[in-house]
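Q&A FORM
Asked by: J.P.
Topic: structure of Adenine phosphoribosyltransferase

PROVIDED:
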Amino acid sequence: MPDRYYTDYLRSVIRTVPDWPQKGVMFRDVTTLFQNKKAFRHLIDAFVQRYYDFDIDAVAGVDARGFILGAPIAYELNTSFIPVRKKGKLPFDTVQESYDLEYGSATVELHTDAFKPGDRVLLIDDLIATGGTMIAAANLIQRLGADVIEAAAIIDLPDLGGSQKLKEKGIDIFSICEFEGQ
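REPLIED BY: S.T.
REPLY: Here is the structure written out as tokens.
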């Protein structure tokens, strides 16, 4: 975890929107981190400092906020960036993985040539909630023969169980901050 000062600062910049998208949900809006130049720099720096000495071949960012995080992190780590896209957005041959949402399902895709067997991949998104999206993305990465060295996010919502599911799948997780029971 980053320095407590930065964790508290970044957590304080995240906007909470009550009752969105439905009543009873406390939505954690990270766009406030992205629009604040000081907070955004501290956020990217925290991830870069975490992974600077890791042996990483690629950063895989989950559509769409994972793109915002993943690209500058990959740049700073001098590695490639691979987008994990929503279904129908990639123009070449793809592998797909579907997962359940609270109301329905969704599918993510990767190009079949996104990774080489044995590649070491950092998987990143804005938050870990129920874990469905991250697990689907990890499954795709592993299906292509690469290894997910860690799943990273700005926010972990441990009460929703996603981080535990990732751990049960053998994937280490890292988050900048947590929001529990709020």
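FOLLOW-UP: The chain has a mean pLDDT of 95.
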